[in-house]
């Protein structure tokens, strides 16, 4: 009967994420917090009822890919272009400040007589690597929270999205530099060339796919389910190619695919279909899987102190660094706070970077526990703080009736019945009239 255990695990994850999501909603917190807590409660950190299997890991990976694909489809491309330079500045300073902060904390604690490290790499490289871990940003948590709050299509939301994507690229470069110092087989120039090659590839493919999709869609207005399948396949292919062929994160490929699809006339219809898939199945498993990865080892007093300091530095350096970058680019103070808070979460990205460092001797076992705590706390606190900073001052946003990710209540009404068909019909008529 062990072969059917995954069915029980899935049922338990879906029920617990929803129940805890409703509970956190009663406390005025985003439901994504409940999904994260469900993973912690069910996983090795507390009850130990569910372990992360290959099936759950793969499903969670598809979940974050679909989440970023939807974020790409729902991104205001015009606003994203406007915030392009600003996003780069925000991401750059948002990487430099945490890198310095993480290095400073590690420099103080990672020495004989304070905390002993069993890593094989030099102390200097180990300290730099801890700073590299703090530069990571898990945009998936912020995206889901912004969607739930109806703030994804705001100036702040677009800046967070753009900066997070650039942050991933800068993180890859930083990780490559530090690993190349520890492993001479890694060539940084080849990695940089592959990153540039990916964006060139995405631009060419995007143009070709858009032109083909446009002609195909115009010639066959009926049978719209086929568009969903083609779009999903395109999303998965872009994710695969970005990761395998170019060494760029698969979620970056998924986001690029979403941006390309956003130019077509089928965006709202596709968003409605993918929303159901993500809401009912993939997203709960992805967010719960983060909690399932957490195992809290026994820690000495100095390791506990290091953990506390590292968590504080991880939060403050992102808020200060990204907020400072936003201020330099002309954003208002309240927008700077939102952008800084939106970049706090380290999530699965930091875990992936940490596991890479542990494998090549740049992260000792005594420092893995504090990194896990940083992931847990920043992941849980980000949605809470985002709701607080977005509540104070209104931001410019697309009205709720034209934004499919506007808020979950609107989506639930559309899911319920014929309103969806009426909505799509009106959208098609409006676009057709606009084209005329």
Describe this entry's structure for a reader.
With 436 residues, the protein is mainly alpha-helical. The protein has a single domain, classed as Na+/H+ antiporter like fold (Up-down Bundle). The protein has 18 helices and no strands. Helix 6 packs antiparallel against helix 15 (347-359). The longest helix is centred in the middle third of the chain and has 32 residues, at 188-219. It is globular and about 70 Å long. The relative contact order is 0.17.
Assembly level? single chain
Largest sheet: none
Low-confidence stretches: 397-420
Number of domains: 1
Secondary-structure-based class equals: mainly alpha
CATH class: Mainly Alpha
- Helical coverage, percent range: over 70%
- How much of the sequence lies in strands comes to under 5%
Based on DSSP secondary structure assignment, what is the total number of beta strands?
0
> What is the CATH architecture assignment?
Up-down Bundle
Q: Output the helix-strand order.
A: HHHHHHHHHHHHHHHHHH
> What is the number of helices?
18
Query: What form results from the Cα inertia axes?
Result: globular
What Rg, in angstroms, do the CA atoms define? 22 Å
Here the CATH topology equals Na+/H+ antiporter like fold
End-to-end separation in angstroms reads 61 Å
